[in-house]
Design goal:
- The chain has 14 helices and 17 strands.
- The strands form three sheets. It has a nine-stranded mixed sheet.
- The longest helix has 20 residues, at 13-32.
- The radius of gyration is 28 Å and the shape is elongated.
- A hairpin with a 5-residue loop joins strand 16 (390-395) and strand 17 (401-405).
- With 414 residues, it is of the alpha+beta class.
- Helix 7 packs antiparallel against helix 8.
- It has helices at 13-32, 47-53, 79-90, 132-149, 161-170, 179-186, 190-199, 204-214, 229-243, 306-315, 337-349, 363-372, 383-387, 409-413, and strands at residues 36-37, 43-45, 63-65, 71-74, 97-106, 118-127, 155-160, 217-218, 249-252, 262-270, 279-286, 299-305, 325-331, 354-356, 375-381, 390-395, 401-405.
């Protein structure tokens, strides 16, 4: 037997119904916020990802040379492809431009609980005004999605990259020199961050102060530790989110994001039920367009780990809707098959989910099969009933059975 590749999954009918149900709720919530769907290729030029994340990202992704000698990669995330698409073709769209997307991504990493080499990401990007209104709108969408899918316990942590960038800049450390320090601070690797700050000429006292700032978390009142535009920006975000009805929000200046293209607000969402690996969503404000050949453009976006969100829901006891069909059509004898198929075809044309016996089972076995399919009604096509222009319809929940004229079947099933 040929096995599936490591880090991938097969999804059966029940699992796909569960996933499609979750996906449709996410899509519906994005549409309610005025976001419209876009899609991009599953593979892109490798340069798109190395420009965004650095050359070392090649070690973490599926990168290869195609038959034309081009360096190609399966997309490891969707923000870069969407922003490449924007620069190429969407710059003339009116602002704010609101886009969402859903699709497969690929990373060559060690598979573990909730993490796979082929995984799914739902995300959104808002291109428009660099203000707290846009930031709050994006955070509110992410939170509304979690609320709409039924996740009971999730937290939103909001920071601002400008706080640490400002502290590092005041010590003479900026740009490429600051990036590795920010990356270590983001991962809470404080010893290595201290060592890198020392190498950059930052005093031990100032390094300790910077590390303490990353440990600042709690309600919006902790913002009293900082001042200026960043504080005002974050306070306005909190205010707008309160108007939207979200109060499970806290400040966390340890949400850093070490990559240069992040420009301001950053946020993460956690599902505590997942334990240590609890992050299910991350995002922030950024500018990638100039890296891809466009003009510098303000953007705010997020990516939701679809698989981890589903895992969190399941650990909270989420039950997907059961598979149900409206009608199961049974011909009593082989001579009734023609009429059974015609009735099934008519019901399907009228939008009624219908199955018909294809296996030539006995009447009793067909009833058992209809029950296994969660059929609401069974339509029994018999010679005596047809002679009256009718069929027998049995309600599978009550067991009641009665004659129904063929022309009244649709209304009976509704």
């Amino acid at each position: 037997m040929i096995q599936r590749p490591r880090g991938t999954r097969d999804f059966g009918p029940e699992e796909m119904e569960k996933r499609r149900s979750l996906e449709s709720k996410m899509r519906r919530e994005a549409a309610l916020f005025g976001f419209r769907e876009v899609t991009t290729p599953i593979f892109e030029h490798t340069e798109l990802f190395t420009i965004k994340s650095g050359p070392n990202v090649v070690e973490e992704i599926y990168a290869f040379t195609d038959k034309g000698g081009r360096d190609i990669s399966l997309r490891p995330e969707l923000t870069a492809p969407v922003m490449r698409f924007f620069v190429n073709e969407l710059t003339n769209y009116p602002r704010p431009l609101k886009m969402f997307y859903f699709g497969q991504c690929f990373r060559y990493e060690r598979p573990q609980s909730g993490r796979f080499r082929e995984f799914y990401q739902f995300g959104a990007e808002l291109i428009g005004n660099p203000g707290p209104e846009s930031d709050a709108e994006v955070i509110a969408l992410a939170a509304s999605i979690m609320r709409s899918v039924g996740l009971k316990d999730y937290n939103i942590r909001i920071g601002h990259i400008g706080v640490l960038r400002g502290l590092l800049a005041s010590s003479g450390v900026e740009g490429a020199q600051a990036a590795p320090i920010l990356q270590k601070l983001d991962k809470k690797e404080y010893e290595e961050a201290s060592a890198r700050m020392a190498e950059a000429g930052i005093s031990a006292d100032e390094a300790e102060r910077i590390i303490e700032i990353t440990k600042t978390s709690g309600p919006k009142e902790v913002l009293d530790k900082i001042e200026g535009e960043v504080r005002d920006h974050l306070l306005e975000i909190f205010k707008i989110l309160s108007y939207y009805g979200f109060d499970n929000v806290q400040v966390d200046l340890g949400v850093v994001r070490g990559l240069d293209y992040y420009t301001g607000m950053v946020f993460e969402m956690d599902a505590p039920v997942l334990g240590a690996e609890k992050q299910i969503c991350g995002g922030g404000s950024y500018s990638l367009t100039e890296l891809f050949g466009g003009e510098r453009t303000f953007s705010t976006g997020f990516g939701i780990g679809f698989d981890r969100t589903l895992l969190a829901l399941e650990r909270e006891g989420y039950q997907a809707p059961s598979h149900v069909i409206d009608a199961f059509v049974i011909p009593v004898t082989p001579s009734m098959k023609e009429d059974a198929f015609r009735i099934a075809a008519q019901l399907r044309r009228e939008g009624v989910a219908t199955e018909v016996d294809l296996m030539g089972r006995s009447l009793s076995k067909n009833f058992k099969h209809a029950a296994s399919l969660n059929a609401r009604k069974v339509i029994i096509v018999g010679e005596k009933e047809l002679a009256q222009g009718a069929v027998a319809v049995r309600d599978m929940s009550s067991g009641d059975q009665r004659l129904v004229k063929k022309e009244d079947l649709r209304s009976e099933l509704q």
